[in-house]
TrEMBL record:
InterPro entries xref list: Carboh/pur_kinase_PfkB_CS, PfkB_Carbo_kinase, PfkB_dom, Ribokinase-like
Gene responsible for this protein: kdgK
Pfam families named among the record's database cross-references: PfkB
Taxonomic superkingdom: Bacteria
Family according to the record: Belongs to the carbohydrate kinase PfkB family.
Sequence ranges assigned to domain Carbohydrate kinase PfkB in this UniProt record: 33-300
Keywords: ATP-binding, Kinase, Nucleotide-binding, Transferase
A GO molecular function held by the record: ATP binding
Name used for this protein in its record: 2-dehydro-3-deoxygluconokinase
UniProt keyword Kinase, yes or no: yes
Length: 314
């Protein structure tokens, strides 16, 4: 039985080889790389030694095989993962620009990644788990996913499983009001929230990220971990705040850093490290994640994380 359950879209990512090449003209792509925020999280947590189960859907095709092979190889439990013969695996096309921005073109909603039903949420699977990790990207796929995630939250609560939540949702697509409405029932039940500063302010309507964090804590969240890219992270719980600096690395591909960070934090908490130590551990995981091309390729193994932490102390 898993200690951590993650659910949502599994995709392949196909990216531009050259920085600056947009998606609106013929150019060279590379991939397929296994991807999808909830799947990246699951894979990274498994690599770090966590017992993780992933609930999601692929098509019965070669792109689906890329995802399934990777998750299986890294030891993710796939009991409630499914392959749908009549559907095609989800795809994200990505272009990178020299100012660090990214442009995405998704085939998620109308692909296998959009397929889910409530029968995949089985109460016995949640028994003994510590965390149900929810990604905002998954709640916003479609109605089926939204309802299945809300059911998973209820099931988690009945089984004493804590909810962790990474908002990771783009207001450009849905609009801020809809995003807030989708996230509200998750935030109300979450023990840990992992926002970026921008996400925290969007979700709470506060102007300043720290004010937004305090608003989240007031709503009942035990811990808020603010992710700050190359500036590291700050972990807040009632009455405490720790600023934890980033590790210095060369950033090759930022996609997936946030999901790997979340995985590092939860695995570290399960291994009984403190909040502050877990933020440091997660910073190291996030830093290593950006050093390789491909959203899941940089998900590190424990030896790499330990080495980075040890080196930085010297
Ligand atoms: P995404 O949603 O694109 O995956 P995010 O906004 O959720 O990303 P980031 O803040 O970009 O998350 O990254 C998560 C964590 O990874 C950071 O808090 C930091 O610890 C680490 N990290 C990310 N980028 C870098 C970097 N360039 N150098 C060092 N550490 C980094
Ligand atoms: Mg994120």
């Amino acid at each position: 039985m898993p200690e951590i359950i993650s659910m949502g879209e599994a995709l392949v990512e196909i990216m531009r080889e050259k920085i600056g090449a947009g998606l609106d003209k013929p150019e060279v792509f590379i991939g397929p790389y296994p991807s999808g925020a909830p799947a990246i999280f699951a894979d990274c947590a498994a690599r770090l030694g966590g017992k993780v189960g992933f609930v999601g859907t692929i098509g019965n095709d070669d792109f689906g095989k890329v995802i399934q092979d990777r998750l299986r190889f890294d030891g993710v439990d796939l009991t409630y993962f499914q392959s749908k013969p009549e559907a095609t695996t989800g795809v994200a096309f990505v272009a990178y620009f020299s100012d660090g921005s990214r442009k995405f073109l998704y085939h998620i909603r109308n692909a296998a990644s959009g397929v889910i039903d409530k029968s995949r949420i089985v109460s016995s699977y949640f028994k003994g788990a510590r965390f149900l990790h929810i990604n905002g990207s998954a709640v916003s796929i479609n109605q089926d996913w939204k309802e299945t995630i809300y059911l998973a939250i209820e099931t988690a609560k009945k089984n004493g499983v804590k909810i962790s939540f990474d908002p990771n949702i783009r207001p450009e697509i849905l609009g801020v009001d809809k995003v807030r409405a989708l996230c509200q029932p998750i935030i109300e039940n979450a023990s840990i929230v992992f926002p970026s500063g921008e996400e925290a302010t969007m979700l709470t309507g506060k102007k300043d990220p720290e004010e937004a964090v305090f608003a989240l804590l007031e709503k009942g969240t035990d811990v808020v971990v603010l992710k700050k890219g190359s500036l590291g992270s700050t972990v807040y719980s009632r009455g405490t705040k720790y600023d934890v600096p980033a590790f210095e690395v060369e950033e090759i591909d930022p996609t997936g850093a946030g999901d790997c960070f979340d995985a590092g934090f939860l695995v570290s908490l399960i291994q009984k490290r403190s909040l502050k130590e877990s933020a440091r551990y997660a910073n190291a995981v996030g830093a290593l994640a950006v050093t390789r091309k491909g959203p899941m390729e940089g998900a590190p193994f424990p030896e790499e994380v330990d080495k980075l932490i040890t080196l930085s102390k010297k």
